Amino acid sequence: MSFPLAGKAALVTGSSRSIGAAIARRLAADGANVVVNYVSNASAAASVVDAINKSGGGRAISVQADVAEKEGIQRLLDETLREFGRLDILVLNAAVMGYGTIAEVTEEEFDRHFNVNVKAPFLTIKAAAPLMKEGGRIILFGTSLTRNSAVPANYLCYVATKGAIDQMTRVLAKDLGARGITVNTIAPGPIDTDMFREGKPQSLIDFFSNAHPQKRIGQPDEVSTVVAFLASDQASWVNGQILMVNGGYTV
């Protein structure tokens, strides 16, 4: 069996469930040692780690840390180096998704979105980049809604933060690319996760499903395969790109 990421270490923020957990499992299946990050759900993180460690491929540990805090970021990086001695792949998946029009969004909610979705990835990359060597991979998460003219009015804060991620990707690819570190963003469409389903009636889920050519929404594993490609040596010439993974929802 081939392990294209054997010997590499990956840190995946927000990886105790949903897309993050699928990414952690896939990178480990490809041979990477993985840090599974969580904020409060220790049992979910332990379940992901246990499944990885029983399945062969890379090893996994879990680390509790809130990436919205500098102390949490430093703890994540310290534990990664202590356990695996290196950092090759950084996947910035942790995010919040709230809803509200400009009349409804409070200053506190605005700050929460930008602190978690923009400032945390910025500070994590700033702290992690000096630890990464040539061939390193940084993978951020955006959304296909930044390209979708039918974006709902109540996605204001979420889409604004993901637009910032798109622009960070373009600039960081130039900056860190000079060191042989690639920076790319995955921009999913609707993916069947708890966060996506939260607060949505089934009629709205069906609406999104019917907006896709295949009349369904995507699955976390369909995102993790693209992350695994970007993390591999095969993606050495892919840099500064925003890859929409949405089944044709937005083209």
Structure, explained:
This protein has helices spanning 18-29, 42-55, 70-84, 107-128, 156-177, 194-197, 202-210, 220-231, and strands spanning 9-12, 33-38, 60-64, 89-92, 137-141, 182-188, 242-245. With 251 residues, the protein is α/β, with parallel strands linked by helices. The protein has a single domain, classed as 3-Layer(aba) Sandwich (Rossmann fold), CATH 3.40.50. A seven-stranded parallel β-sheet has the order 3-2-1-4-5-6-7, sandwiched between helices. Helix 1 links the parallel strand 1 (9-12) and strand 2. The radius of gyration is 17 Å and the shape is globular. It starts with 8 loop residues before the first strand and ends in a 6-residue tail after the last strand.
Secondary-structure map with pairings?
Layout: E1 9-12, H1 18-29, E2 33-38, H2 42-55, E3 60-64, H3 70-84, E4 89-92, H4 107-128, E5 137-141, H5 156-177, E6 182-188, H6 194-197, H7 202-210, H8 220-231, E7 242-245
Parallel strand pairs: 1-2, 1-4, 2-3, 4-5, 5-6, 6-7
Helix pairs in contact: 1-2, 1-8, 3-4, 4-5
Label this structure with key terms.
seven-stranded parallel β-sheet, Rossmann fold, 7 strands, 8 helices, 251 residues, alpha/beta, globular
Give a short overview.
The protein has about 250 residues and is α/β, with parallel strands linked by helices. It has helices spanning about 20-30, 40-55, 70-85, 105-130, 155-175, 195, 200-210, 220-230, and strands at about 10, 35-40, 60-65, 90, 135-140, 180-190, 240-245.
CATH fold title: Rossmann fold
Our Rg estimate from Cα atoms comes to: 17 Å
Instruction: Count the domains.
Output: 1
CATH superfamily: NAD(P)-binding Rossmann-like Domain
CATH architecture: 3-Layer(aba) Sandwich
Based on secondary structure, the structural category is alpha/beta
What multimeric state do the chains show? single chain
For the terminal residues, how far apart are their CA atoms? 36 Å
Q: Tally the helices: what do you get? A: 8
Low-confidence stretches: none
Percent of residues in beta strands?
5-15%
Family: Belongs to the short-chain dehydrogenases/reductases (SDR) family.
GO molecular function: oxidoreductase activity, acting on CH-OH group of donors
Protein name: NAD(P)-binding protein
Pfam families: adh_short_C2
